[in-house]
Amino acid sequence: MSAAWLILAAIVVLLAGYIWYGRFLTRRFDVDPLRITPSHTKEDGVDYVPAKTPVLLGHHFSSIAGAGPILGPIYAAIFGWIPVFLWILIGSIFVGGVHDFSSVIASIRHGGKTIGEVIEEHIGRSGKKLFLIFVWSVLILVVAVFAKSVASIFVKEPATATSSFLFIFLAIIFGLGVYRLNTPLWLSSVIGVGLLLACVAVGVYFPIHRSYNFWIFILFIYVYIAAITPVWILLQPRDYLNSFLLFIVLLAGVLGIFVANPKISFPAITHFNTNLGSLFPILFVTVACGAISGFHSLVSAGTTAKQLDNERDAKPVTYGGMLIEAVLAVIALITAVTILQGDYLRLLSKEGGGPIGIFSNGIGTFVSHLGVPMHLGITFAALAISAFALTSLDTATRLARFAFQEFFDDGKNSLLSQNRYIGTLITVIAAALMALSGTSDTLWPLFGSANQLLASVVLLAITVWLADIRVKNRFVKYPMYFMFLITLTALGSLVYKNVKAANIPLVIFSLLLFIVAVILIIQAGKRLKQLKSAQ
Q1: CA-based, 20 to 30 A from 94: which of 27, 165, 384, 425?
Q2: At 277, which helix (H) or strand (E)?
Q3: Which three-class secondary structure state does DSSP give residue 273?
Q4: For the whole model, what pTM was predicted?
Q5: 320, 21 in Cβ contact below 8 A?
C-alpha cells in the first residue's frame, strides 16, 4: 500500500471530524463569543494574559505536541500499522479532541480554574486533593521522561542543543517586542521565523558537545527558571515561534510523503503479544499523545484557559490542536512502517537511534525528494523534536507548580500555596529523582499509562460537571468508560512487570496512581447517583 494514500485518508477524515464533530461539540457546550473569558476578568500580566488566536494556538500546540505523538506511534508500530492508524483517527476525533475541548470549556466556565477546582465544586474537596496528588505525580513523570529524551537528543545531535538555547533568547526578544514595544504580530512573526531558521543554521555549524549528565543538570536548571517567569516573557513567545518549526516539519513531511510515495513494508497486523505486551491494552497507552493525552487537559485548563481571548477560539485551539497532532502522529507512524520490519527492530534499539532516529531519518528521506539534502532534513527533524520536547518540559513544570500550590491552598495564604519558588524547586527535585530511577524504556510505558489514566479522570470530572448542570454527557461518559478500562488494565500489568523486575520505585509510583484513581472513581460514582436521584 502507498503511504501517500494513508496520509491523504488521515487528513480527509480528521478535517471531516473537525467540521462535523467540532460543530456538535460547540453546540453542546453552548459556546458564546460574547461571554467574557477569565483572561480579561482576571488579567494579571503573569498567568492571566489575553492572547491572539494564532499566538495561543502556537503556544497550546507546541505545549501538547512535545515528542509524545512522535515516539508513541513509532513504539506502537510493533503491533502493525492498521491498529495504530485506526486508533489515532478514532481516538483523536471522539476521545482526545473531546477531552481537550471540554477541559478548556470547563475551566473558563469556572473562572479559569484548573480541573482540580472543578472537581472540588462538583465532587468534593477530598476529590480535589486526590486529583492534585494524581496530577502532580503524573507531571513529575512527564518532566522526567522528556528531560531524558531532550538530553539524549542533545548528545546524539549536538546541533540541537545550540539551536534550542538560541530559540530561548530569541523568544525573550520576541515577547518584549510584541508585549512591550507593541510591534505588529505579523512583522514580529516574519522576523522571528527568519531568525529561528538562522538559529537552526547556527546550530548546524556550531554544535555543543557535552555529556548526557551535563545536559540533564542544565535542563533541570532551565525548567526551574522557565516555570517561575511570566508567560509573556518566555512561554507564550517561545511556543508560538516553535509552532512554526512544527508546522514546517508537518508540511515538509506531508509533501515529502506525497512526492516520495514510499510503500508500506510493514504487516497490517503483526502479533497480538509483543515485547511491549499485549495489543489490548498496551497499544492504546503506547500511542499515547497521538490519540489522547491527559497532559493536554492540564495545558487546556492550566495555561490555555487563562490566555483564551474569546470562547470561539476554544475549538480551533484545543480541538483543532488535537487533530493537527494526530496528523503528526500519522507521519511518525509512516516513518516507521515504510522501512523493513527487521530494520525497524534494529533501529528501535538505543544503538540504532531509537524512535527519534527512525523519525529523523524518515523525514530526511522524504524531504530529500523535494530537493533538500538528506543530512539537512535529518538534522532539522531532530531539532524540531528537541524543540517540541523542551516546550513540554517547561510547561509541565509550570503546571506541576500550579498543582502543588493549589494543593496547599486553604484560603489562608500559606507559604506553600503562595510562593512559586518553593513549589517549583520541590517539583524539579522530585522529577530529577524520578529521572534517575529508570531508563527511557521502563519510564515510557508508565508515562503512557499514567497519562491516559489522567485523561480518564478528567473525563470523569467533566461527566459529573455536565450532569450537575443538566447537560447530556454521553459524548464524554462513554469515552471515559473505555479509557478507564484500558488504563487500569495497563497499569495493573505494569505493576506486575515492575515487581518481577524488582523496580521498587516504579512499583510504588504505579500503585499510588492506581489507588488514587480508584478512590476518585468511587467518589464520582456516589456523586452521580446523588444527581440522578435528585432529578
Answers
A1: 384
A2: strand 277-278
A3: strand
A4: 0.85
A5: no
- Residue-range domains of the chain with CATH: 3-534 (1.20.1740)
* Element counts in the chain: helices (H) and strands (E): 24, 2
Each of the 535 residues of the chain gets a pLDDT tens digit; together they read: 788 999 999 999 999 999 999 999 999 999 888 898 888 888 777 678 888 888 888 778 877 877 778 888 998 988 989 999 999 999 999 999 999 999 999 999 988 888 888 888 888 888 888 888 888 888 888 888 888 878 887 887 788 888 888 888 888 888 788 777 777 877 888 888 888 778 877 887 888 888 888 988 999 998 898 888 877 777 777 777 777 777 888 888 899 999 988 899 888 888 777 677 788 888 898 898 889 998 899 888 878 898 899 899 999 999 999 999 999 999 999 999 988 666 777 777 666 667 877 888 888 888 888 888 887 787 778 777 777 777 778 778 888 888 888 888 776 667 777 778 888 899 899 888 888 776 656 676 777 788 888 899 899 999 999 988 888 889 999 999 999 999 888 888 878 777 877 777 778 878 888 888 888 888 888 888 887 776 6
d(Cα 300, Cα 198) in Å, to the nearest integer? Answer: 31
Q: What is the DSSP letter of 51?
A: B
Q: Name 273's bridge partners.
A: 278
Residue count of the chain, please give it: 535
Q: Name 471's Cβ contacts closer than 8 Å, sequence gap at least 6.
A: 28
HSE, side-chain direction, 13 A CA sphere, residue 404: 25
Contacts of 391 (CB under 8 A, 6+ apart): 62, 63, 65, 66, 238, 239, 242
- Residues whose CB falls within 8 Å of the CB of residue 204, separated by 6 or more in sequence, listed in order: 159, 376, 379
Q: Report the alpha-carbon distance of residue 301 to residue 275 in Å, rounded.
A: 36
Q: d(Cα 185, Cα 285) in Å, to the nearest integer?
A: 39
The rounded Cα 472 to chain-centroid distance in angstroms is: 28
Mark out the alpha helices in 206-319 (DSSP H runs).
212-228, 235-260, 279-287, 294-299, 314
Q: For residue 278, what is the enclosing H or E element?
A: strand 277-278
The closest alpha carbon to 285, from 114, 443, 136, 507, belongs to: 443
Residue type, 508: I
C-alpha cell at 43: 488579567
Whole-angstrom distance, CA of residue 385 vs CA of residue 361: 12
Q: Which has the closest alpha carbon to 226: 170, 173, 175, 168?
A: 168
